[in-house]
Amino acid sequence: MNFSPALVMVVCAIIIAGLEKIYSKYYADKAPKIIVVSPEEFLAKLTQQKEEVKKNDSDNDNKSDS
Q1: CA quadruple 44, 46, 47, 48: dihedral sign
Q2: 27 vs 2, 45, 48, CA distance in Å?
Q3: Furthest C-alpha separation in the chain
Q4: How would you classify residue 32: left for phi > 0, otherwise alpha for psi between -120 and 50, otherwise beta?
Q5: Half-sphere CA count of 2, side-chain side, radius 13 A
Q6: Taking a C-beta distance cutoff of 8 angstroms, is the pair 14, 22 a contact?
Q7: Which residues touch 45 (CB under 8 Å, ≥6 apart)?
Q8: CA-to-CA distance for 49 and 32, rounded, in angstroms?
Q9: DSSP 8-class letter at 3
Q10: Are 45 and 37 contacting, i.e. CB atoms less than 8 angstroms apart?
Q11: Who contacts 27 (Cβ-Cβ below 8 Å, separation ≥6)?
């Protein structure tokens, strides 16, 4: 079975086009976003999230005690 290189290239192009459509339809919105922050901003955000978690934990503890 010898396939001509042109036929193989056409088949590969069709497969790539199909994969691009599938990616754009299902996965493009879920692609990870790269965010660049300074170390100070990162630490501020981290402490803010820790405070929110502590607050939510204390709220949940108070609700379960009732």
Answers
A1: positive
A2: 36, 28, 30
A3: 77
A4: beta
A5: 1
A6: no
A7: 37
A8: 20
A9: -
A10: yes
A11: none
Place of tokens 């990870």: 32
- 0.85 exceeded by pTM: no
CB count within 10 Å of CB 63 equals: 8
Token digits of residue 56:
């939510």
Q: What is the pLDDT of residues 17-38, one digit of tens each?
A: 999 999 999 888 887 888 899 9
| Averaged pLDDT for residues 43-63 | 85
Determine the Cα–Cα distance for residues 16 and 8; give it in Å rounded to an integer: 12
Position 5: which residue type?
P
Residue spans of the domains in the chain: they are: 5-65
